[in-house]
Amino acid sequence: PGASVYLNGGSISTGVTELQIGRHNLLVRSFGYEDWRGAITIAEKQTTKVEAELKEAVFTLSDLRVSRRIFNPGNPGKLGTTRVNFDVNSWGNGEFVVSQAGGGIVYSRPLTGFTTWEQSLEWDGRDSVGRVLPDGEYTARIEASGLKEQEMKSLMTTLTIDSTAVISYRSVLSGVSGL
């Protein structure tokens, strides 16, 4: 129940679906379960029944990416932050930790209740008590585990705070010739 069904890369609803005669690729996925993939062949004037049994997935943490590797917390609003994105495949919890060059933790934030594949958070270059951190390179780490597994998974990247990096908003008309 609640699984998403994809036929040849496009989403379809569960139940009866009319298809062209021939071979089709099928993907069935649901958060917390391994993807089920199969190929089906549709014959003329016949009903083809497909049953997919999904197995619980072992927790994985993957694809850590950031919107800005170098940023200035002094820039206004969202321009003074970086967005951190990562993927999980099952229910779990974790923590976002930022360390300075010597290894000391300057910021941490719990990540609770993973309920979907794509996770994201924003960091504004401040320490745990809200002070802007000095210019330099920092290590950002996601540590997480599944609800049923005790093994902690970890992904890391580097971020640089640079108070000389100025990012500003651009007017919608700034790129129009003749203005």
Write up what this structure looks like:
The protein has strands at about 5, 10, 20-30, 35-40, 60-65, 70, 80-90, 90-100, 105-110, 120-125, 135-145, 155-160. The chain has about 180 residues and is mostly beta strands.
Shape field:
elongated
Low-confidence stretches: none
Ends distance: 56 Å
- Strand order within the widest beta sheet: 6-12-11-8-9
Structural class by sheet pairing and helices: mainly beta
List the total number of helices. 0
Q: Report the strand count.
A: 12
Mean pLDDT: 89
Helical content stands at: under 10%
What's the order of the H and E elements?
EEEEEEEEEEEE
Radius of gyration: 23 Å
Determine the strand fraction and express it as a percent band.
35-45%
Biggest sheet overview: 5 strands, mixed
Provide a short characterization of the protein structure.
With 179 residues, this protein is mainly β. Helix content is 0%, strand content 44%.
Task: Tag the structure with descriptive keywords.
12 strands, 179 residues, five-stranded mixed sheet, mainly beta, four-stranded antiparallel sheet
